[in-house]
Amino acid sequence: MNIFVLLAVAAVGGLLGFLAAALFYAYHARRRKSRKGARRWKVEFIKLVLMLVMATYFLGVAVGVKIVLEYPEQLGTLLTYIGAPTATVIIFYAWKAKAENVIKIKKNNPEIVDSVSEIGNL
Q1: What are the structural domain ranges in the chain?
Q2: CB-CB contact of 85 with 59 (8 Å)
Q3: What pTM was computed for the model?
Q4: Cα gap 79→37, rounded to integer Å
Q5: What pLDDT sits at residue 117?
């Protein structure tokens, strides 16, 4: 299969994933407006970025598997392509969540500041 066809499929898949996420968000935004007095659901930017990166790499897995089936020697390249950025995003997200939780603990329990500071220095 021609590499340009694979690139076109990857680009179309990425656009379709973005479109699906936008439609999902618009649908829930409309539902929020229709519910009076309900708590407003808000998508955090970092979670949206994480979702888009993961969707892109799931698409990359599909294209990569197709390539590896034709050229098995490319498996190492596929695993690096998928693993490195995905691990980076997951590690960053876990670090950010830890920092937010430490801030919440400090705010809700000011008497345990010393032990929370020790947790924050991990």
Answers
A1: 3-120
A2: no
A3: 0.45
A4: 48
A5: 57
Query: How far, in Å, CA of 32 to CA of 42, rounded?
Result: 10
Quickly count: other Cβ atoms within 10 Å of residue 116's Cβ: 19
Residue 108 has φ and ψ, to the nearest 5°, of -85, -20
How high is the pLDDT of residue 35?
A: 62
Mean pLDDT, 10 residues at a time, over the chain (122 residues)? Answer: 70 77 76 61 74 78 84 86 81 86 80 59 55
Quickly list DSSP for the chain.
Answer: --HHHHHHHHHHHHHHHHHHHHHHHHHHHHHHHHSTTPPPP---HHHHHHHHHHHHHHHHHHHHHHHHHH-GGGHHHHHHHHHHHHHHHHHHHHHHHHHHHHHHHHHH-GGGHHHHHHHHT-
